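Support case: magnesium ion complex. Customer-provided input:
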Amino acid sequence: MRHTLSILLQNEAGALVRVAGLFAARSHNIDSLTVAATNDPAISQLTLVVHGDEDTLEQILRQTRKLIDVLDVITLSLVGDTVA
Amino acid sequence: MNAQPLKAEIAADHHPLAGQPMTGAEVIVQVLADEGVSVMFGYSGGAILPVYDALFRYNAEHPGEGGVEPMPLIVPANEQGAGFMAAGYARASGKVGVAVVTSGPGATNMVTPVRDSMADSVPLVVICGQVARASIGSDAFQEAPISNIMGACAKHVFLVTDPGRLEVTLRTAFEIARSGRPGPVVIDVPKDVQNAALNFRGEGRLPIPGYRARLQTVQSAHVSDAECATFFAALEQSKRPLIYAGGGLIASGASAALRAFVDDFGLPVTTTLMGLGAFDTTDSLALHMLGMHGTAYANYAVDDCDFMLTLGARFDDRVAGVPDKFAPTAKFIAQIDIDPAEIGKVKPVHWHHNGDLRLTLDRLRQYGTRHGFRPRQDGRYATWHAQIAELKRAHAMNYDRDSAMIQPYAVIEAINRITQGRAVISTGVGQHQMWAAQYFDFREPRHWLSSGSMGTMGFGLPAAIGAQFARPDAVVIDIDGDSSIRMNIGELETVTTYGLPVKVVVLNNVGDGMVRQWQKLFFKGRFASSDKSLHRKDFIKAAQADGFEWAKRLENKDELSKTIIDFLAFDGPAFLEVMIDPDAGVYPMVGPGASYAQMITGDCIASRQQVAESEAARDDMF
Ligand SMILES: Cc1ncc(C[n+]2csc(CCOP(=O)(O)OP(=O)(O)O)c2C)c(N)n1
Ligand SMILES: [Mg+2]
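Agent response - structure generated as follows:
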């Protein structure tokens, strides 16, 4: 199952690496990742596409929410059921 | 996502030094003083010199009674030692441990203790020097990408690029280290930031609204009446309830709450390695440790229970090697944890609460009492309590007491007879660690300091040093292995340099005993690299060379108890090497991939069933 995650992140040194590193360390492949500015220069928005089952997704979401600079994590949509 | 204003921020009238010009280094030292730091551990070097100098001046200008330094800096042989000293200090005291090291190699030597503290939820603040901002990324002398490296290991890492944010960053680091599920926070401070001319503010923290909001939610999470009702409805049905408690109970200071809960409701308690001491192991309802090397009676009780209350524990692979077969007859599993990611991570649970353990246990106890749940009075657990007592009697820990060789278990028992569960015990990693966990009593929390999740050899000696600083009057004993102690043996000198009365015991089985145990079981006894009979070290000479006045080798079983009495009675640092039976094993053992029912109990502990030892699957996981 493919999932699109939207993460609001404080724009701190190394914040992006910590998010990407968390996914790598927990064996999650990121299919795509975009970083966008928001109207608050202190906050950026990451959009990630990942695949995995519901339980694995739930666990990585919870781990992501433990990162200090993460403001919010939401699952935007579930797209199809094929593995990219 | 609104951050709650913190009490400190509202209350901070005016810091007496507010507005004073200070260098970055002086700011760092002042915040450490404000945070109540009374000792720190570290090793100097070019990129951290300004901080060391500021600390030197601070200590000279603020002498305490009798001229003692208010914030002494304890110097190890290796930065890894400093990290484990800070961790030992934190584990023994519950306060944040502080380490200060230089850039590059100083900081990379700190990686292991930081990861170890993360894995065992130990609060640390580690300050690393870094090359000047202009040199970052240029492969400068002693430059290492610490924020990348530590970011993967720590609870959080800050690279201070804006001197104006140095002060608030430091204060925030302490807040993050000690709040929620505690952990290590690393602050990487470029040298030019340490030298920057600043004005001290005396207040303020970084906005970390996401973290604070989530913390606030968890800390104020209330167990509703309906949730309490569900919990007690299940407990009402239970005939054999059991508490499985982990390190979270100690981290959250919930031991007294657990005691009250058990006093009222009579649930027996088993703890993880990390939870030892959370509940007095000498209590009649205590089952000591569960898991791979847990007591047979604890593991059988897990197999027998029909209700499990999990407190600050995470079903890790040393406890629930096969999650499906863990507590197989429990019809109801409840879990309370401060970390939302641990709820149901390994094993689905029927009831959970994501919140503070102490508050939650008190809330449940009050609800139960108010709603007439009085198992102590109505005697509903009488049969279960009798069964627990019988399990403890029939499957008690035991070993070959008639052997001519010194048995390691006997050494621990002899020490325990004198210390009575009141000593602070640290360990290396291996068989000796498991024997210490199994054969010592632990009457209180924070008396057992061991690298649980990472299993880092070399932890024991520096952790004991840090613990002795936290508890100057306590008896602190490092129970170490001949291989583990080699890893940080340089710290023997640190013990004598600072005149610490640390007691060091090396259970010498001439090698990596735990590795040999696995090689016996799973590699047909081929002792690849685990035998040290050709190694030449004379531990006694080594200890003496480092200034231990009391350093003895015990080889004769008849002298065991006299030697131990003498050793513990020595007023000062003492080193005891005990030549133990090299074939002594750790039993019971639940092999990798095996269920508790398949536990091997060895020759001296009664098993409930005969199990073919070879059934345990071979496994890569060590
Ligand atoms: C830093 C580190 N390296 C390797 C290991 C793997 N390991 C686990 S126990 C052990 C042997 C420990 O020997 P010793 O300290 O003498 O303890 P014993 O098992 O003999 O009591 C080894 C090598 C480890 N846990 N930590
Ligand atoms: Mg050994």
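Residues B 430, 481-483, 509, 511-513 surround magnesium ion (ligand 2) (CB under 6 Å).

Case will auto-close in a few days if no follow-up is received.
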